[in-house]
Every structure is written in C-alpha cells, then in structure tokens.
Amino acid sequence: MKITDLNNVAVIGAGDMGHGIAELCALNGYNVYLKDIGQKFLDRAKNRIRESLNILARKGKLKDDNIETVLGRIIPTLDYKQALENCGLVIEAVPEIMSLKKSVFIELDFNLPKSAVIATNTSNMSITELASQIKRSSQVIGMHFFNPVILMKAIEIIRGNDTSNETMKFAEDFAYSLHKLPIPVLKDVPGFIVNRVLAPSSVLLNKIIEKKIATSNQIDANFRKIGQPMGPFELMDYVGLDIYKHGADYFAQKIDPEFKSPKWVNDLINEGKLGKKTDYGIYDWSSGRPTINLEDTTEKVDSKDLLLVQVNEAAKLIENGVVEYPGDIDLAIQNATGNVSGIFWLLKNDREYLINRLNFIADEMGVEIFRPIEFLKEMTIPSARKALKARKKKRKEQENQKNNK
Ligand code: 3HC
C-alpha cells in the first residue's frame, strides 16, 4: 500500500481516541468510515467532532474547508463490511481488552481489501500478539495517538515482530500526511515509549498517596508550578482511570508485579468514578476542568523524583534498542504530553547524586523497579534537538529519492 493511493480510512471505535482520530483524518482530506457498536456512540462522537471543529473554525484553522465539508467526509456506520470494503487503512481504537481486540482483528482481516494496512491504537499491548491472529501480520502496525488527538503532535509508530519495512514507511507517511510527528518504536515492548516511561512515576505517586506523604492536589499544584499543563493526577482522570488501570495491570503481568494498579484507584473505578468521562474520579469534573488549589503545594515531595524514575525507565528502553535515536524519548514526551522540557535535562545534574537518589527512593518506598540500572551511569545525555534534526534530514532524503525516481 502506498500513501498516494490512500483515500479511504476506517476507524473502529468512536470513543475518546476514535472520534479524535476520525476528526483528524477528515481534517486532512481523507474519507473516514467511523464504526462502533451502537448508534448512540456514533451520535455522541459526531457531536464531539462538531464541537471541536467549531473551535478550529473560530480560530481560522480549517484552511479551505468549512465544518460541513469536514463532517461530510465522516461516514458513521454500524457495519464492518461497509466500513472496511473500500479502505486502504484501518485504525482500531476499541477498549483495551486483548480478547476484544483479537476478535475485531479477525473481522478486519476478513472484510478489508488484501493490500490494506491494519493499525492499532493500543496504548500498551503487544502488536505482535494481535497480528498473530491473522495472515497479513506483515501489514499490522501500532499507531499510538495521544489524547486529545487533535492537539497532541506525536504518534508512536510501533513495529511488531512481523511488520514489514513497507508498512513502517506507510504508517510514517500517513502520520506526516496528518501533520503529526511520527516517532518510530523499533521493538514491541509493553507501553512503547511514552506510557512506559511514565509508568514508574505512577507507581511512585501511588506510594506517596498510600503512605499519606502528600495529597493529589498538592502534587498536581507542584507540577503546575513548574509549568506542566496538567499535574499527574489530573492527567490520570483526563485519560480515564479505567485506561490507567488496564495499562498498570498489563505492565504488572508483562514486566513486573510492582506496576499493579493500587487499591485506591480500583475502589474509585468500582464506584463508577472513572475521571473526566463520568464527571467524577480523583477530582470533580462536573463543571469542566477541576479546580486545583495552586497554593496548596508541598515540600515533602520533590517533583524531580518523579522525573528521575522516568529517566531510569527511559535508559532501559535505550539500552534495549527500542528507539531509533535516544533523543526520540524526549521528543515523544514533549509532543505527546506537553512537557516541553522533557526529562533528560536531569542528567545534566550530578550523575552520582541521581544514582544515589534512585537507590534511596527504591529503599524508602520498597520498590525495586526504581533501582538505577548500570547503563544509566555511562549513557550520554540524549538530545531531542539532535533526534529531530536527524529525523528531518532522513525525511528530506526520502522525499528527494522519491522525486528523482
Ligand atoms: N479541538 C480543538 N481545539 C481544542 C480542543 C479540541 N477538542 N480542546 C481544546 N482545544 C483548544 C482550546 O480551544 C485552547 O485553545 P487556545 O489556547 O487558543 O484558547 C487550547 O486547545 C487549550 O485548551 P484549554 O484552554 O481548554 O485547556 P488547557 O490549556 O488546559 O489545555 C490540554 C488542555 C491541551 C489537554 C493540556 O492540559 C495538556 O496538554 N494536557 C496534557 C495532555 C496529555 O498529557 N496527553 C497525553 C495523555 S497520555 C495518552 O493519551 C496515552 C494514551 O494511551 C492513554
């Protein structure tokens, strides 16, 4: 499949991510078949897309299109055959349940043209395992978008064990056609880059709450004070506590039991408090974005500790050859979460102190995944700027090669 041949895209699942992906594709000129299992989900998605397009139109960001033209490119459907029979690409965005995704994959394979590519927007799960369901495993890839899809620039492009180079290139070209920044993930590891790097800081946050060292408001206020767009607890609510739990429990199963979702989160979920989508979670969202008392900060928690455990996790990914350029990790974090500084600036500080601090946090909290890895002692400081430069150069060379053919 070549990007120049692609006109029709299908998106399976019209929830938080699916509706955003459909909007993004339609904004960039693709016809989009948006499939879900109930009319009410499709109606809700269309309303959300209209609201978002209204904002973009007010800001003059719709270029030559108007709202109706963009909406007209989105065809809601409840039927797999209608959604898929004319599509060159499908992006699966159904809930994070492996057995559900596997059954969807079988439908996709059955109804799509033979040359079509299957992308999954899974947040954490194995692309290789999903691809093993079907024959066209070389045409299966991870395309992990970030919430809110319209605003977040990064898309992780994840290679499964069987994914072909052609499929990788196609997915990268597609991401560029959406005016996004593709970040290749060369190995199919749980959580890929961003969610994986963020995961140990969630474990640390949970320990801080469990040990009653500080409150969620205090920690979020600390983060807002250092310029983050959202504190970590507000972000958990924003993404959804159910999504968070799926990720944490998947990591616990695949990497280390220490990642497991804590009881206090499970309790909120059992009470039906999933965060923004249900109006209540850690915070009250019933009147819009929750009010964080920015004066209620704490000195008992050093925000840098939360980034430090991320640096250690990132070092594991670099050592394991998961990224093309080490700086891709900061590039992904900056463009997926709005953390403009990234995390590797911490390595500019006294390295020995950082290593000792990680050992101290591991001992204090009784959590081994925080223990610093040997590689952290010797690794050079990754540069997002260099990674971006290298990526732009490669892209230019590919464009030149194409033009010379
Ligand atoms: N469509 C179009 N524009 C939108 C929009 C939408 N759906 N939503 C918001 N906007 C615009 C607003 O109009 C506003 O524009 P302005 O600055 O010109 O006025 C701008 O975006 C910012 O929105 P708000 O003023 O409403 O709110 P904030 O300034 O607080 O920004 C935010 C909201 C962009 C979500 C910001 O808080 C943020 O970057 N948060 C971090 C999000 C993040 O980390 N995402 C990644 C989550 S992890 C993930 O997705 C992985 C998955 O696997 C779970």
- How large a portion of the residues is in β-strands, by DSSP E? 5-15%
Stretches where pLDDT falls below 50 for ≥5 residues? Answer: none
Between the first and last Cα atoms, what is the distance in angstroms?
18 Å
Strand pairing plus helix content: what structural class?
alpha/beta
Task: Tell me the number of structural domains.
Answer: 2
Q: How many helices does DSSP assign?
A: 17
Sequence of strands across the biggest β-sheet: 3-2-1-4-5-6-7-8
Mean pLDDT, to the nearest integer, reads 96
The named CATH superfamily of the largest domain: NAD(P)-binding Rossmann-like Domain
Radius of gyration using CA atoms only:
21 Å
Reported by name, the CATH topology of the largest domain is Rossmann fold
State the name of the first-level CATH class of the largest domain: Alpha Beta
Bound molecules: 3-hydroxybutanoyl-coenzyme A
The CATH architecture classification of the largest domain is 3-Layer(aba) Sandwich
Q: Helical amount among residues, as a percent range?
A: 40-55%
Q: Main beta sheet: strand number and arrangement? A: 8 strands, mixed
Element-by-element helix/strand order: EHEHHEHEHEHEEHEHHHHHHHHHH
- Net shape: globular
Number of strands: 8
